[in-house]
Structures are given as C-alpha cells and as structure tokens.
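User: Can you help me understand a structure? I only have the sequence.
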Amino acid sequence: MTRKRSEHYVNNKEFLAAIIAYKDSIQLAEIRGEDKPRITNYLGECFLKIATHLSYKPNFVNYMFKEDMICDGIENCVQYINNFNPEKSKNPFAYFTQIIHYAFLRRIQKEKKQLEIRQKIIEKSGFDEVFVADEDGKSAEYNSIKDAIQYRFNR
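Assistant: Let's start by predicting it. Here is the structure, written out as tokens:
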C-alpha cells in the first residue's frame, strides 16, 4: 500500500545526498580557485518546504508576518548550510528545521519590538484615535495618524 506524501514532504536521504554533493562541489571550487557555487534548486525547494510546513504549526500559524518568517528561515538555512557536518549527523532535516524554528522566533521578537515602538510613538504623540466619527455619531471614517495630525493642526 503506497502512502500519500504531503506536498511539504522532504526525503531525508535524498536531502542528505544533495547536501553532500553540494559540499563536494564547494571543495572542488576551492581547489580550482573558483567562486563558491550556488545551492541547487532541490536544496532551495527543501528549505522552502520545511519552512512553509513549520509555519503551519500552532505556535506560528496566526502571525501576520508569516512570509517574513519563512524568508528569514530560508535565508538562515542558506547562510548556515556549510555548518552542517554529514559525518556527525545523518539528519539534515532536523538540523535545518531547528535553524528555521529559531529564525521564526527571532522574527517574532523583532516584530514585537517594532509593535512596541509603534505603540509608544502613538501614545507619546497623543493621537490614540485614528477613527473620526461624524457629528451625528453614526458613520465612522478611517484616517491615518498623519491625517489626524494634519486635522488637529489645521483647525
């Protein structure tokens, strides 16, 4: 009975073989004095699949900046691909999943800091309201903070 594979499935053995082949191509390029080769499309697809699937986990699913988290995870995988040692571990899936997981956590921390900064700016500016109601109080119109500032100074 054949098991149906998820679209985010990464075969660990093929992934390990691709990483070993990439590391060999890096060593060959160094011997020849050439530039370091780009990672293969397969490796990039594996990083994308791991990051995308990890973003569906309950602790990451509801963030507005999920695409940024995925991009950070892929960027970190590309950055640290040379640190993976196939002699120590035969499980690159777990290694890169951890890299992506910590990239997600760093992105969440960055976004929380930015949100706190935005909140402090709004509080210090004295423009907490960005909705302005008509005189009858029935319809509300959305204004940006900039519009609210111009409205207060132009009265």
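Now, to help you interpret it: The two ends are 75 Å apart (CA to CA). The CA atoms of residues 55 and 66 lie 7 Å apart. Let me know which part you'd like to focus on.
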